[in-house]
Write a structure and sequence with these properties.
20 helices, Rossmann fold, about 50% helix, alpha/beta, 2 domains, globular, seven-stranded parallel sheet
């Protein structure tokens, strides 16, 4: 069935009651979904414009929020005359964003982006009055983009990526999504492949800038804590990072059959979503593994000697986990999730094993494979085989670690390339705003 823009606008209003049911359902595991409904449904006021020109940055969840950090820092430094509005769609994104607000609490405001209903986005733009809007990565809403165009707000899709799977989905609703993509003043893509897909959906003025995730500076205190932890260990650390639903049971079964390997390295498994920490603990123990929880230990001496795997059940410590790891298997790639962020462990110099599903980071992973920083396998069992190889032949692990560091440094600089383009748009937007005020 063909969906027209007018049909989408009608459905977006009629479907709002379903959004409340969705929030209640999500709140069973994450009570934070019960909060701030006044923002989600535009029942209350949004952060009003302060008199300064305003940069609005939308980062839907944790990954996009973390990716926004180097861009946000550059905006604060380059444009001291502005304030920043930071919006999200998930509680974990908002929690991560609160740490960014702390960088400049007098200049950064935070709220949820309302659902994509016409009355809600109209109220959002009327009250917040952004001078320019920057959407991180993939979050494109038709009514939002239509209202931005009506209000004359230049919109930028930054660090933009579009997998083949996402493009195929968007093409089914091209009458709606085409005008939305075409409404961006500029699209700053991560790769040539992303550029081609975005242009096929109607995107204009698409420039390849790379990924700002290569410019993220790891948390220095967490890195120091990881170095101190490793100094007291007599064996390497093997990290299974950012696992998704269905992957933990596969890794648990694989680890349970390799008790000798679990003695040769200290294994850590870190789930992607905090609401699943308890579930993953039960999965690991149910496979017969002895599990120690990160939330219950402060130093290596707290880890019982018979521990098979440490469960990383803490939020905001990915810099610690990546700096701790001598080798990493990346979650999200062993089920059909397209992989999680392989750049973080690469920045820490950890060689990486990925599974078959890599569509979210296809270009980065292909380049990492070519550089010798990554290895691709089919199953968790094969990932453990690679870990064992790196333990058996340490020089291959050292070589892959050096390749990971070199690879990540080679791709740095996307923030600067984006800011060069944003600077032109910012100056033009301010001039336009001054003429209409």
């Amino acid at each position: 069935m063909r969906i027209t823009p007018s049909m989408y606008r009608a459905v977006s209003v009629v479907a709002l009651p379903l959004a409340s049911l969705y929030l209640m359902w999500r709140s069973r595991r994450q009570p934070a979904y019960r909060q701030f409904w006044d923002e989600r449904f535009a029942w209350s006021s949004f952060p009003l414009k302060t008199g300064r020109p305003r940069v609005w940055i939308h980062a839907v969840s944790v990954g996009e929020t973390n990716a926004a950090k180097p861009l946000l820092e550059a905006v604060l430094e380059r444009w001291p005359e502005c304030d920043v509005l930071l919006t999200h769609m998930t509680p974990t994104g908002r929690e991560a964003g609160a740490k960014l607000v702390a960088l400049a609490p007098d200049r950064i405001h935070q709220c949820y982006l309302p659902y994509d209903a016409p009355y809600a986005v109209e109220k959002f733009f009327r009250q917040t009055q952004p001078t320019i809007g920057i959407i991180m990565e993939t979050e494109v809403w038709p009514n939002l983009m239509s209202e931005a165009k009506r209000c004359g707000v230049p919109m930028v899709l930054a660090n933009a990526r579009e997998s083949e799977k996402s493009r195929a989905q968007a093409e089914k609703f091209l009458d709606v999504m085409g005008p939305a993509f075409g409404s961006f003043t500029a699209i700053l893509a991560q790769s040539e492949e992303d550029k081609e897909r975005l242009e096929s959906l109607g995107g204009r003025n698409v420039t390849v800038c790379g990924s700002v995730k290569f410019d993220i500076r790891p948390n220095a205190s967490q890195e120091a804590a990881a170095r101190a932890w490793k100094a007291s260990l007599s064996r390497p650390v093997a990290l299974i990072a950012s696992t998704r639903q269905g992957e933990e049971v596969l890794f648990a079964k694989a680890m349970a059959t390799r008790p000798e390997l679990l003695r040769r390295a200290q294994f850590w498994l870190v789930p992607r979503h905090p609401q699943r920490f308890d579930e993953v603990f039960r999965t690991l123990t149910g496979a017969g593994l002895k599990v120690c929880r990160r939330s219950q230990i402060a130093e290596p001496a707290d880890v019982p000697a018979d521990t098979d795997v440490v469960l990383g059940d803490s939020m905001g410590e990915m810099s610690f986990y990546c700096a701790l790891a001598d080798m990493t298997a990346m979650g999200g790639s062993f089920q059909n999730h397209g992989s999680q962020n392989v750049i973080e462990p690469a920045l820490a110099g950890s060689p990486i094993v990925v599974g078959p599903s890599i569509f979210n980071f296809q270009k980065v992973i292909r380049d990492g494979l070519s550089a010798g920083a990554m290895v691709q396998v089919e199953t968790p069992e094969e990932a453990l085989d690679r870990f064992e190889h790196w333990l058996d032949v340490p020089e291959t692990r050292v070589s892959a670690s050096e390749a990971a560091l070199g690879f990540s440094r080679q791709y740095a600089g996307a923030t600067q390339r984006m800011m060069t383009i944003l600077e032109v748009l910012w100056q033009k937007a301010q001039k336009t705003a001054s003429l209409t005020s």
